[in-house]
Amino acid sequence: MDFLISGIDVLTSAVLAILPIIAVVLFFQFVAIRRPLPNTRRAVLGLVYITVGLVILLEGLELSLFPLGSMMADQLTDPAFVAPGAAEPLDIDWHNYYWVYLFAATLGFAASIAEPAVIAVAAKVRDVSGDTISQWGLRLAVAFGVALGLLLGTLKLVLGVPLHHFLMPVYLLLIVQTWFAPRSIIPVAYDSGGVTTSIITVPLVTALGLGLAGALPGRSALFDGFGLVAFACLFPIMSVMGYAQLSVWFAGRAKRRAEAGGD
Amino acid sequence: MRGSVRDLLPIFLVIGFFQLVVLRQPVPDLGSLLLGMLLVVVGLALFVRGLELGLFPIGESMAYAFARKGSLTWLLLFAFALGFGASAAEPALIAVADKAADAAVDGALIAEQGRRAYAWGLRLIICLAVGIALVVGVLRIIFAWPMHLLISAAYGVVVLLSPFTPHEIMAIAYDSGPVSNSVITVPLVAALGVGLAASIEGRNPLVDGFGLVALSTVMPMIFVMAFGILS
Asked: How many CA atoms lie within 13 A of B213 on its CB side?
C-alpha cells in the first residue's frame, strides 16, 4: 500500500516536472514555428520513454538508494561511530571523520557516473567533437571532480570554515585556470558542473550535508547543511579543464619527443 | 539495459561496501531494496533512451526551425520561457526556497509572516535568472561572444557579491545555481545550443553550442545574492 501511495506521489512530481517543458515546446512549435514536429512518432515515443523512465527511476531511488544513503550519512557521522572512545563530541578531531570523507568522495564519484544527464550530454559532446573528447573520458573527469569537491566540502564542514572563505578563493582560481585552458573545452567544462548536479547526486549530497551538519557540535543543519551541492558543481569544471590541459600537454610532449627522435 | 547496469554498478558497490563492511549493518528490508535497484536500472535505461529519441531531436529541430525562420524575437522568447518554466517546476528548487525562507526567519532577516512571500520571491528570482541566462546564452551563440570572458565575468561578480551576502542565505545562494538545472531541461537546452551553432554559418557546435547550462548555473547564484543583499 505504501508502495502504491509513494508511487502516486512520484508520478505526480515526475509529470509536474515534465509538463511545463512539453507545454513550452508545443506552444512555440505550433505558434512560432507553425509546422508539425519532424519525426513526430519518434519524438512522442521518446517523450513517453522519458516520462515512464523518470517515474520508474524516481520510484526505484525512493525505495533503494535515497533512504539507504541518508541513513548511512546519519550513521557515519554519529559521534558513537566516529570516535567510540570520545566522552564529548567536542573531543573528536577532524581526522576522525575519515570514513565520512571517503564516503562523500566515493558516493560523489559513483552518483555522477549514474547521472542520466551526464551520460546523455557526454554522448552529445563525443559526437559533436568528432570523437576527440571521448564519452568515458569526460564522464570520468566529471566524476573525479565531484569526488574531489565532496571530499573538500565535507572537510570544510567538519573544520567549520565559513563557506565563502573557502569558495571565493576557489572561484578566483577557477577564473585563472579558465584563462589558461584550451578555449574549445571551456563551454563543455562549465556545462558539466551544472549537468552533474542532478536527479541522483543532489538528493544524496543534500542528505549527506544535512546529516553531517546535524551531527557536528555547534553547527545548524539549516545554516551549515547547504553548500555541498556548490562543491559538487564547481570542482568538475576544474577537473574537465584540467583533463583537457593534460591531454594537450601530453600530446605536445609526444610531438616534441617524436621530433627529437627524428633528428 | 546492460549499459545501465554498468552505469549503476559503482553506486551499488559504494552503498554496499559502506553498509556491510564499514558500518557492519545488515540491509534493512532486502526485498524492497532489490525491487528498488531493479526499478532504478530499468528506469535509467528507458530515460536515457528517451532523451536520445525524444528530447535531443526536438531541441535540435527547433533550433534549425528558428534559425531558418530568422526571427530572433521568437527564439529569445522561447529560450526565456524554457528556462523560466523548467525552473518553476523543479521540485528540488521548491525545497531549497522553503529552506532558505526558514533560514531567513531563524536568522531574524525577515519576520515570521514574511516567510511565504520570501520563498515565493526567491523562486521567482531563480526562474527569472534561468530565463535570462538562456537568453544571454542564445545571444552569445548568435553573436559568438567569447565564453571565457562571459563566464569569468559572471564568476567574478559572484566573488564580488559574496562578502555582502547575508550569512543566512549564503549557502543557499551557492546551491541555487546547480540545483535549478533539471534533468529534463539540461539535454533539451544542450541540444538547442548545438543545433543553433550548427545552423549558423561560421559557428562551431563544440565551441559555441555548449555553455547554455553553464550560464543557467551561475546566473541564479548572482540573482539570489542580489536578492539577499537588497531584501
From this structure: 35
